[in-house]
Amino acid sequence: MTETTGTIFIDGKAVGFMQGQTIMDAALSAQVYIPHLCHYPGLTPSGNCRLCVVEADGRRAAACTTAAKAGQQISNNTAELNAARKVITQMLFVEGNHICPSCEKSGNCKLQAMGYHLGMLEEHYPQFNPRRVLDASHPDILLDRGRCILCGLCVRASHEVDKKNVFAIAGRGADAYLIVNTVSGKLGDSNLDVTDLAANICPVGAIMFKERGYVTPIGERIYDRQHISDVAMHEHVTEQKGDKKR
Amino acid sequence: MLSQHSELKTGNNADADFIADHLLHRLYRLQQQHRHIPPQLMVEVAREFGLPVSQVVAVVNFYSFLYQQPVGRYHLLFSNCTSCGYQAGEVNLLALLCRQLNIASGQTRADGVVSVDETSCIGMCDHGPSMLVNGVPIVNLDEGRIKQLCNLIAAEQSLDDWPADWFRINNHIRKPDLLLNAPLECGDSLKKALAGDALLMLESIMQSGLRGRGGAGFATGKKWLFCREAESDTRYVVCNADEGEPGTFKDRVLLQCHADALFEGMTLCAYGIGAKKGFLYLRGEYRYLLGHLQAVLRRRYDSGLLGASILGQAGFSFDIEIVIGAGAYICGEESALIESLEGKPGIPRIRPPFPVTHGYLGRPTVVNNVETFIAATHIVQYGSAGFSAVGTEKSSGSKLLSVSGDCRTPGIYEYPYGVSIQQVLDDCGATQVQAVQIGGPAGSLLAKKDFNRQISFEDVSTGGSFLIFGENRDLLSINRNFARFFAHESCGFCTPCRVGTRLLENSIGKIADGRATWRDVDEIKQLSGFVRHYSHCGLGHTAANHILDSLRHFPGDIQNLLVQQAFTPAFDLDAALETARQMTQRDDADAHLE
C-alpha cells in the first residue's frame, strides 16, 4: 500500500488522511469527534450502531467503514445528523434494560454519555423490556445480556486481540443476542480472563467485574470528569492494553 | 463453509448429487432426524466442520427452518403472505387450523405429533392459501382442506398418502413473450459462445443493455467484465434463487421450466469471467424442486455441457453445486447470500468492496438472478440487437411479472419493459382495483392515478412481484402485514433496522387497533424516514416504503381510524391490567379502568 496523503473536509475543516484510512480514522487523528459506540480504534470497524453516519459528498455513510477519498466534503456535526443520532441512542435505550440509577456502569457508560452528548432527555419510544438470560457462571465476570447493545466490540476484541474467540452474536432481528463460544454456552466454561480486552471493552454494563462495586464513586467517573468527545480522542487498542486493569 | 467431509454424500449418493457439502445441509438433515438441533449435536457438527461452536449456534439461531426446540412430526408452516397466506381469503385459516388441532400457533402439541407456525411468503401466490408441511408445499387451501388435513394428521397418515392434487403446483404461464416464447436448445448458446472469444460474448451482453432482474438493475455485461478484470486466480458464479420478496414466484416457474437455460447462462458467465465453480443458492421453500434440478444437472454433465472440457474445449471446465437456504429473506441480498454460502448467518457485508471483486471466500464473484442468467443465454443465442430492440431506452428486453392478489388469472406474465400497469391489470382480469404493490413490500404502493405508469428501470422498477388489492381490501391490514414481515426478517445487525422495524410494526398496530392519534402518524413518518436513511442495507432502506406510500396515497384510510385526542399511550391500559385481574381473581367493575 502506497502511503499517499490527501485531504477531506469535515464540516468545512480540512483534514488530512493517509491511503487506506476511513473517514473515522482521519477524523480521530485530526481530533474531530464523530459520535460512535461500536467502533474502537485498533479493532476492525463493524458499522452496526450507525451513530457515525455522516454525509459524504451528499450520501449517508458510516464514517467508520467508509474510506476517505481526496476532496470529499463531509457533513458531521449538523442538526439533522445529531437528531438521527439521538434517535439511535433512544432506540438502544428502549431495546435493552438500561436503568442508569441502579447500574454500576453509570458514569463509565458510553451509552449514557452519548445520551448526555446528544441532549437526550427522554427515551421517547416504548420500552421493549426484553427478558434476556443473565450469565453469572464466571467467577470474576458477569454477563448481563439485558444491558447489551450488540455492538460486537467484545466479539472483535476477543477474536482479534485476545485471540480467544469467546463471544459471538446469534439470533435474528430484535431477537439477536450475545452468545459464548463454549460447549455449555456458559461464560464460566470459557477462558475469558479479567485482563482480556474483551472483558474490559464493553461500552455499557453488559460485561462487568464481580465484587468490584463503586470503587470509583459516582461523580468521579470517566464521563463525570470528561466529555465523551474528549475521551474518544485517547482511545486505542494498544494503549488500552497497557492500562488493562484500569 | 464447505468442509472436506464427505459424510453427507455417503449412503445416499443419488440424492446427494451436486449438493454442496455445506453446514446448512448438515443441519437440515439433523433437523429432519431429530425435529430440532440438540445442543450436543451443534457441538459435534462444529467439530466436524472445524468451526467454533458459536458459529453453529449462530446459524441455527438465524435461519427460520432450524429449531432449538423439537417441532412436531407434522410441522405445518402457513404462509403469511397477502396472496398465499392464511388470510388471503375471507376466513383466517391459521386460526381454524389451530382450533381444529387444539394447538396455539408457534407451539408444538404436547404429544409431539404436530406443530403449527407461520412463515414468510412461500412463493405460491398464484395458488391461493398455501403452507409447507415438513418443508413440502401444499396449495389451494380452504376450510374444507384444512378440516381434511386435520383428520389426516389425527389418523397419523403418511404424507405420501395425502391427496396428490394438494401437492400439484402449476406453472400458470399466462402470457409468454421474448424469453418464454423462444425455444432454447440445450447447449446451442454455449456452442455459439465457445466458437468465439469470451470477450466477444461479454461485448454482446453489454450491447444488449441487459440489466439485473433481481431489482437493482446493474448492467450485467459490465458486472461480468469487472469480475473478469478483478485480480485473482479463482472466480465464482452464483445464481441467486433465493426468491423471497413476498408476491414473487417467477423464479419458481423458471427453475421448473427453464433450468437448462439457467445453467447454460451460468456456464456462459463462467466462460466469460474465467470461473471454474458455480453455485445455485436455492431458497429453502423451493427444496421440492431439488430432484428436478439435480436431474437437469446430471443430463448436462452427461452431455458434456458441464464438468471438465466442456463441449470438448480443453481448459474450459465448470462445475455447479446447489446450496439450499433455510428460511431467511435477507439472504436474497447478494452479500448476505455469500455469507450464507460460506456457512454463516446471512448478514449483509459492508459494501464496497462489492462481490465482483471480493465475493465468495473473498474472491471475485458474479451474483445474478435466475431470470438474468436466462436472458443472457437468450442474448448469446439470438444476438443482442433483437434483445435491445425490445423494451425501453434504459430497460432492454422483457420482464417476467408474478401477478397475484385480487384478479381472475394470477400467474406469470411476461412483457416488454415499458408496459403500463393498467395493461397488466386488464390482462389478468383485475377490476375494481384499489391499489397495486409493485416490487413486493420493499417496492412501491401505487394508487389508481398511477396505473398509467410503466414497468421499467426508469419508472416503476420491480424484481417481479405484482400484488393487486381490490376495493374491498383493508389497506392498513396490508401495511400491518408488511411491517411485521420486515420486523421478522431484519437480520439485526444495525440499530435503525433492528429496532426501527419493530417500532414501526407496533405503531402500525396501534393505528389499526384504533388507538392512535395524529401525533402517532407524525411519529411514524419521521421514524420511516429515519429507518430508510440510516440503515445498513437495502432491507432497512426499503422497509418503510409501504408506510410512506400509504400515507401519501391513502391518507384517509388512516385518518378515519385516529382517536381525536392529543395523546394515547402506546399500550392498552385496561388490557395491561389483565394479569393483575387474573392473579387477584377479580373481574368486577373496579378492576377495570372504565
Number of domains of chain A: 2
CATH topology descriptor of the largest domain in chain A: Alpha-Beta Plaits
The CATH class assignment of the largest domain in chain A is Alpha Beta
Global morphology of chain A: globular
Radius of gyration of chain B: 25 Å
CATH arch. level architecture of the largest domain in chain B: 3-Layer(aba) Sandwich
The level of helicity of chain A is: 10-25%
Q: Explain this structure to me?
A:
Chain A has 246 residues and is an alpha+beta fold. Chain A folds into two domains: 5-77, Ubiquitin-like (UB roll), CATH 3.10.20.740; 103-241, Alpha-Beta Plaits. Chain A is 24% helix and 16% strand. Chain B has 594 residues and is α/β, with parallel strands linked by helices. Chain B folds into five domains: 7-62, no CATH class; 74-167, Glutaredoxin (3-Layer(aba) Sandwich), CATH 3.40.30; 179-388, 3-Layer(aba) Sandwich (Rossmann fold); 398-473, Ubiquitin-like (UB roll); 474-594, de novo design (two linked rop proteins). In chain B, the strands form three sheets. A six-stranded mixed β-sheet of chain B has the order 6-12-11-15-13-14. In chain B, strands 2-3-1-4-5 form a five-stranded mixed β-sheet, covered by helices on one side. Chain B starts with 12 loop residues before the first helix and ends in a 10-residue tail after the last helix. The A-B interface holds A 47-50, 53, 60, 62, 65, 67, 84, 87-88, 91-92, 94-95, 125-126, 128, 149-150, 165, 167-176, 179-183, 185 and B 39, 43, 52-55, 57-58, 60-62, 328, 345, 350, 352, 487-496, 498-503, 506, 527, 530, 533-536, 570-571.
